[in-house]
Amino acid sequence: MTLFPLLADLSGRPVLVVGGGEVAVRKIEALLRAGARVRVHARALDPVLQGWLEQGRLTRLDGEFDPAWLDGVWLLVAATDDHAFNARLAEQAHARGLWANVVDDAQLSSVQIPAVVDRAPLQVAISSGGAAPMLARRIRERLEIELDHSLGDFATLFARHRDAIRKRFPALPQRRRWFDRVIDGPVSVLLRNGRHEDAERAFRDALESDRDDDNAGSVALVGAGDGDPGSLTLKALRVLNQADVLVCDPALPAAVIDMARRDATRLTAPQDREALVELLVRHAGNAMRVAYIKAGDAFRMAPDSALRAVLERRNVVCEVIAGVCDGPARAPGA
């Protein structure tokens, strides 16, 4: 089956869901989140749906199913366990030119409802065309791990300044280059750390700058925990996959270093503190995303806990990512 991917605006639009069980709950929850006006026909309602009905979040249609209920709705979702009834519903919807989704039956459906990773207003939809829904869900689980929740704030930032961006960079190639610089720059780091005002300021500075090379880099101070790659946090893995330069403590196990992006430049951290700071500042100043990784939870403990403040005084955007340790933070083998 060849599907054309699209995202539908159902805000304020009527949708008919037939079925009142657990599957219907999942579908209706997504529809309500999208702002749809949900009408439900079912012999019995799941307690969750009954609660939503009492709250006025949906409307119930009682009695025997009336095909006239399909008139004026935008979408039919058939979520009953009666295949023959679902087939009749789909046929009646198709005759009216309506989109119809029959749960777990791709052949009867004219529209599929995908697995979704929601970073509103950013959304990623995954569909197997009904062939392997569990595979689509597994991919969604992986993307949930990979895609930081701050991406929604990032997308909102772009949306809020959309007109100013188009006015500032009217030519598409110029606008693309600017987007690349901002996406790879420090704004995302600031958002990940909840520094929204600083992110807004950095975004505006990038928008107002006349330079094409004004994209400053950033430094992430990553705690590697007890040296087991499986103990790295999801945030640490994201940073290691994004780093252009990896600065490694000499005591760091090779297995942890191997978790980083393959084409990242790998450097051994100098033992001299001033030399280390200069190394980090130089690479960040060359628009690189730098990850300095050290065993334990070093960057939240003295003396390494002071490194973030030192870098920020040098105008380097910096974040600290905690290391997970069973006991007191220590280097492997210590």
From TrEMBL:
<keyword id="KW-0808">Transferase</keyword>
<dbReference type="InterPro" id="IPR037115">
    <property type="entry name" value="Sirohaem_synt_dimer_dom_sf"/>
</dbReference>
<dbReference type="Pfam" id="PF13241">
    <property type="entry name" value="NAD_binding_7"/>
</dbReference>
<feature type="domain" description="Siroheme synthase central">
    <location>
        <begin position="121"/>
        <end position="144"/>
    </location>
</feature>
<dbReference type="InterPro" id="IPR028281">
    <property type="entry name" value="Sirohaem_synthase_central"/>
</dbReference>
<keyword id="KW-0627">Porphyrin biosynthesis</keyword>
<dbReference type="InterPro" id="IPR019478">
    <property type="entry name" value="Sirohaem_synthase_dimer_dom"/>
</dbReference>
<dbReference type="InterPro" id="IPR035996">
    <property type="entry name" value="4pyrrol_Methylase_sf"/>
</dbReference>
<keyword id="KW-0489">Methyltransferase</keyword>
<feature type="domain" description="Tetrapyrrole methylase">
    <location>
        <begin position="219"/>
        <end position="325"/>
    </location>
</feature>
<keyword id="KW-0520">NAD</keyword>
<dbReference type="GO" id="GO:0032259">
    <property type="term" value="P:methylation"/>
</dbReference>
<dbReference type="InterPro" id="IPR000878">
    <property type="entry name" value="4pyrrol_Mease"/>
</dbReference>
<comment type="pathway">
    <text>Porphyrin-containing compound metabolism; siroheme biosynthesis; sirohydrochlorin from precorrin-2: step 1/1.</text>
</comment>
<dbReference type="GO" id="GO:0008168">
    <property type="term" value="F:methyltransferase activity"/>
</dbReference>
<dbReference type="Pfam" id="PF10414">
    <property type="entry name" value="CysG_dimeriser"/>
</dbReference>
<dbReference type="InterPro" id="IPR036291">
    <property type="entry name" value="NAD(P)-bd_dom_sf"/>
</dbReference>
<dbReference type="InterPro" id="IPR028161">
    <property type="entry name" value="Met8-like"/>
</dbReference>
<dbReference type="Pfam" id="PF14824">
    <property type="entry name" value="Sirohm_synth_M"/>
</dbReference>
<dbReference type="InterPro" id="IPR006367">
    <property type="entry name" value="Sirohaem_synthase_N"/>
</dbReference>
<feature type="domain" description="Sirohaem synthase dimerisation">
    <location>
        <begin position="150"/>
        <end position="207"/>
    </location>
</feature>
<dbReference type="Pfam" id="PF00590">
    <property type="entry name" value="TP_methylase"/>
</dbReference>
<keyword id="KW-0560">Oxidoreductase</keyword>
<protein>
    <recommendedName>
        <fullName>precorrin-2 dehydrogenase</fullName>
        <ecNumber>1.3.1.76</ecNumber>
    </recommendedName>
</protein>
<dbReference type="InterPro" id="IPR014777">
    <property type="entry name" value="4pyrrole_Mease_sub1"/>
</dbReference>
